[in-house]
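The step that takes the researchers longest sounds almost clerical: writing a folded protein down as plain text. The outcome of that step, for a single protein, is printed below.
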Amino acid sequence: MIPVAGSPVRVEAFLDPRLSRWMWLVKWFLAIPHYIVLFFLWIAFFFVTVFAFFAILFTGRYPRALFEFSVGVMRWNWRVAYYAHAVLGTDRYPPFTLAEVADYPAHFDVDYPERLSRGLVLVKWWLLAIPQYIVVGMFVGDWGWGWGGADRWHGGGLVYFLSFVAVIILTFTGRYPVHLFDFLLGLVRWVARVAAYAALLTDVYPPFRLDMGAQAAPPAKTRAPADGSGP
């Protein structure tokens, strides 16, 4: 994946060229097995983050294995959210894995920091992030993208409203509005950077900006022909 403006947090997604007009109505139901697994993964994520807090406080490092687990949980959550209830930009069922899946159309990653501030860990996740939490609360509602105090996606925010608008347009026209898709990705990137910062995965303060669009080439299985022609 290509970093966006040097950010250590990267969120990518690629819109399926032939989305079903009606499948979005049942994706939330099809994703129930994922929700069950994610429930337990977020519990583990919480305890891993608490352990990492003390590890950073005393050593200045986030243990690499625990870091990969935390990023993996957030990655899994993003794939399920992208498929089932936020953006709804693919009909491909999400894989059951913490690892990156190169040909899946949704990706999430965070660069591993060799050193983290031992002092900053005391204040960044609550005091310094307060302005970002206010913004994120408007984006996703109920203060969460599956981390912090939420442990899952909640409804009621701008992301979910715009996703619903997008699939209504898809239902009647057969096309997902690309400009709306790009805007939704910008919102999700903002939320993801705040989440990674609050989860102690980085010391880089999230920028107050939207980075819209895919930002990278789609995986081989979903990439459209260069001349725009179909099979």
